[in-house]
Write the structure tokens for this entry.
Amino acid sequence: MAANTHTLDLPAVGRPGAIGMPTHHKLIFLGFLALALVAPYVLYPVFLMKVLCFALFACAFNLLLGFGGLLSFGHAAYFGSASYVSAHAAKVWGLTPELSILTGTLAAAVLGLAIGSLAIRRQGIYFAMVTLAFAQMVFFFSVQAPFTGGEDGIQSVPRGHLFGLISMAPDRNLYFFVLAVVFAGLLIIYRIIHSPFGQVLKAIRDNEPRSVSLGYRVDRYKLAVFVLSAALAGLAGATKAIVFQLASLTDVYWTMSGEVVLMTLLGGMGTVFGPIVGAAIIVAMQNYLATFGAWVTVIQGVIFVISVLLFREGIIGVLSKWLKKPL
Amino acid sequence: MFDLLGIPPQALFGQLLLGLINGSFYAMLSLGLAIIFGLLNIINFTHGAQYMMGAFVAWMLLNYLGIPYWGALILVPVIVGATGVVIERLLISRLYHLDHLYGLLLTFGLALIITGLFRNQYGISGLPYGMPSQLAGGQNLGFMFLPNYRGWVVLVSLVVCLGTWFVIEKTRLGAYLRAATENPTMVGAFGINVPRLITLTYGFGVALAAFAGVLAAPIYAVNPNMGADLIIVVFAVVVIGGMGSILGSIVTGFGLGLIEGLTRVFYPEGSAVVIFVIMAIVLLVKPAGLFGRAA
């Protein structure tokens, strides 16, 4: 069975057995933080928050693909449904932003548990098709459900007050909150990847039958990483809904699932920092090329084709090879 | 007139016919996907875009060259199939030594490019494509009114599906194809040009999608997004049926179309998701698919 012999160009994960974060990873995280703290004084904060949300979304997706070896083509379902639930919680139930985001994240985790437990029954290409089909089901549900607002979506969601105290209406206040959420999310993903759980995942990714023969309950590991990935994707989507004060059908449509695959592929599947770079590039491209309309779709398609044919390690993957250090 | 379960028979049979027509498209598209998957081991994500191209090329032939429907029915599969051959030779053939998932990603990218280009050129509002005059009108069958064109679509797709089944299961060419699916190295050793067989298979699968596109043109508006949503449903159909059997793909396609039609009569809100619900049930009960071989 070919699905068991993965030939995806994925790098090794960290130094097995090493304790703590390697110095160059620490430096990158600190550099990222320093850059992110200065950025809102240079660039438009809403644009930066969009980059942050998509960076988290792509890293959550990469947790599943790059480290679990599972290509989900329906991650928009978790991103989008969390965005709807968080918008609903903030607007209709009047919850504070942090509680709205938590509610959205929880909803995505539950959805991930439901879809994941069905999807892991198939492998490889079928897994991709099953996740895509279920995501489309979530999309159709969102079109018809009474609380999603159909084509209009949920608009003018209040940003509210953090912990009921600090107003999130000024862009910069919200920015630092979003940065904290996303940074925490990234650290959680980093921790998962480098935990013993992450090492088992990598073993399953590289050779499933051997992992089974070693006594690991492969399906449980797959489901666990699926739910984690869905929840973190949900965290990104829920935060995005508060930032843009909007949850809409775009967030659950299959094009969104495709975009997150593209971000991860471009940045580098199975690298720690690649998806962040990929997300920044794709979001910036959409932002600055927005006037070209459908050409953006064509350009995305071209990047897909070039990445698959010539550039499978992605930007950070190539960089990591040059530097001979896992990034 | 009598009522069936409180539903007037015109409505019931009307929806069943609609279901049968959707089923025809599911069957033709999932058949193409299954044939391509069998030999190339990739899922052709471009399939929906190629179906859309079929409808557009038919529209172009009519509006730019004055070639009517009947000519399009022959020419369009050849033209779009040829683009498929080029795509396979130039791009897809570079991926056979890699994981299957790269094929999915590549063809997804191609689908974005093709859809985006058509959207730039023709917008998203949709272009009308007239019905051939020979198939206008309809028949009154007593219990329902059957528009001629719809009957024609069901009939032709059945013929095409069964014809494909016959070629693959009963002819020498089909025997090569099945053998190459099982063991390409061995078939190559017997002096059969396997790479060419692969290229032609991809071209044929694409031609089948384009043919479905021509059939669809007079029913649905010709627009760049017509393939994208359809292909995801077809993926679900493929998961339900399993890609191991040609006849299985055909039966699953028509069957699910009918079930969808019935749902539209008895529970309209569920009609958009019924196929996905069935997929969930099949995954629970028989994960390999109804006609699939266990992995």
Summary: Chain A has 13 helices and two strands. The mean pLDDT of chain A is 89. The first strand of chain A starts at residue 161 and ends at 162.
